[in-house]
Each structure stands twice: as C-alpha cells, then as structure tokens.
C-alpha cells in the first residue's frame, strides 16, 4: 500500500473547519489593512532562492527541493513566499502602482526538514508583504496586523520578540565583532556553528545546542552596532508599537534564518513550551528586490505557519465553528418512491437546499440511522402511501416528531 510521503499529510474533512476558520480570519484581517490576494507558482527558478534567502542558509543548503525538469531548467519547490512575491512585484511592474503595494498569500511550501511535531516537509503559510516604503510606521502597522490577527483567532499567551539587525552599512562592523567574540569559544561550538562562524555568523545566536549557549548569552548585540539611520528607524518603530499598545520584547538573539532581512526582525511564539515554537515571523528586506535585479525597493512582511496555528487552537481549546452541511436527508421505501426521491432531491438542491439522498435499498430504520449520523435537521420520508396522496412525511430529527405535508411546495416549508 502507498502512504503519503514522510512529512506530508492529508487534510481530512474533520479538520477542514479549522483550515477554513484560519483562512477566513486571514482574509478578514487583510481586508481591514488593505492587502490584496496574490497566488504564486508552486515552483520557481532555484536561483531565486539562492540569491535572496541566501546560499549559506539552512533553507537553501539543506532543505530545498531542487530538481531539473525535462527541459533542463533548475527549479525548486517554493520553500517560502517573500522571494516569489518580490519576483512578481518586479515582473508585473508593480512599482508603477501606488506604494506601498500590499499583497497576501496562502500557499503550500516545501522544506526537506526532519519531520516532527510542528515541522513538516509540505506545510502551509499565510503571509503578507508591504512593498515600496521604508517608513518604520509601516513596520509597526505590519506588526500590529500580526498581533490583531492572532488575537482575532482567539489565541492567548503569545509573546512577540523584536530586534534590529542593521543594514549593509552597519552589519559588517557587527559581524566582525561577533566573529571576534566567537573566536574565543571556537572549541566549544557545535559542528554546525563551526561552519556558521565562517558562512553566517549571526545564525550562531539562535543555535539551540547547549554547548553554544554560553557564547551566545555574552555575544555582542546587533542593536549596539546600528548606524544612525538604523538606530533612528528602530527607535521610531518601538515608539509606534508602544503607541499601539503592542507588548513587544526586544530579543537580542533573534536574527531569523534568511539572509534577506535588514533592520526589523520579529517573531511570535506561544509562551508555553508545548506550543511547537515559532508561530510566525517576519521583518524588513530593503535590499531584496534590488538583489534580484529589480529597482531598489524596500519592503516588510510576515508569514505564519497554518499547521502550528491550528495546533495551538486545539491546545488552547478554542472552539471553531462547524462547516455548513446539508440539513435534509431523503429516505424512501420501494422503487417507485426512489424515483420520487431522486426528483425531490434535485428540486430542493435547485432551490439552494443541501440534501443527502439515501442510496441502495436499506430498511427505513437503517436510513434514519444514517440521517442521524449525518446530523441533519430534517428527514423527508417517501413511501407508497405518500405517492398516492401527493405528500411526504417530514421528520424533525431532534424531537423525532413527524408530520405529513404536501409534496408540492416542500422547499418553501424547509426554507
Ligand atoms: P520561516 O519562513 O522559517 O520564518 O517560517 C515562517 C513560519 O512558518 C514559522 O514561524 C512556522 O510557523 C512555519 N514553518 C516553517 N517551517 C515549517 C515546517 N517545516 N513545518 C511547519 N511549519 C513551518
């Protein structure tokens, strides 16, 4: 027997109300803040991610699904959304639109991660991007939107970490300070961090290995190395967030795992350990579009993992509304009644009434049992007597009360 590939899962009907709830809340918040939906392809030129997410990052180096297609093109299943959105922004000349351009997406993403709770090889993100302005008020608006989104889902006990990792003007100074600091700990670092020290020293800060903690705790802080512009940007962002009453905490060790970030980075986590860590994260990427060959264009955005949101909704016992299902079941006794049932089911559906019609030739008792399992409000029963008199029996499934009503005009009665 075949099984779904490791790290992927089927989203079964009984889970769909959670998915529909999260997607609806996502669409609602985007409407409130003026974001429009965009859908991106499931694969892109692999170079798009090498050039933006970065050569030395885990995503590109270890987790990307790359393949050559039959035409010899080197492609990758999309591991994240921001690079694609920036590609689309340039490709479709969106710099001609009123700035900032605000876009959101809901899509499947692919990473060859080690599957475990909250970590899959195919997973889903809701994300949004505001492209075309470097105003810290936009960073604050994005973070506010993130906070309101989680609030609208009903999630509680979340923490919001914030940091600034500077820009190409001040980053090199910070990186040399980091390297100098870590050189003193070279013997104690985990094997991954020894490599990172050369390729991507900021990633040493968020390493979870105990052997790397002492060095990370005492490491220099990016916020202390910002140039005047970045410092002013960070100060204004913090002021605006305070105006908005957003309870952020500056976390000097938060750097995020993608190379394209500049200045603002932030992440939302459940306070409880059991919450499967990062619920979502984002930041500013002022050099990304230019790095991909577009005009210099700043941007800021965010992405949330939908599986982790759903895990936390369940973990926090948040009730999610059920999906709408047919409320009428049609049962029949005998072949002639079956023909009436077929006609009636079609007529009710044409009038916008959801119907499940019995099939086969089960006893009435078995048909009513099925109606009960489906949770319909009413069952319509048709037998020989009803055909003769042009009526049907209408059974209220909660009270078990039955009445005989005319076949004609049943749709009005049910409505
Ligand atoms: P990132 O692009 O790595 O910042 O990821 C954004 C969000 O997507 C994370 O905060 C997680 O909620 C979610 N996420 C990332 N990778 C995975 C994965 N492999 N499986 C499930 N969710 C993920």
Structure description:
With 415 residues, the protein is of the alpha+beta class. It folds into 2 domains: 13-170 and 226-315, BirA Bifunctional Protein, domain 2, CATH 3.30.930; 328-414, Anticodon-binding domain (Rossmann fold, 3-Layer(aba) Sandwich), CATH 3.40.50.800. It is built from 15 helices and 16 strands. The strands form 3 sheets. The chain has an 8-stranded mixed β-sheet, with helices on both faces. β15 and β16 (402-406) form a beta hairpin. α1 packs antiparallel against α5 and α5 (136-153) runs parallel beside α9 (228-243). The radius of gyration is 28 Å and the shape is elongated.
Give me a quick take on this structure.
The chain is α+β, with helices and mostly antiparallel strands.
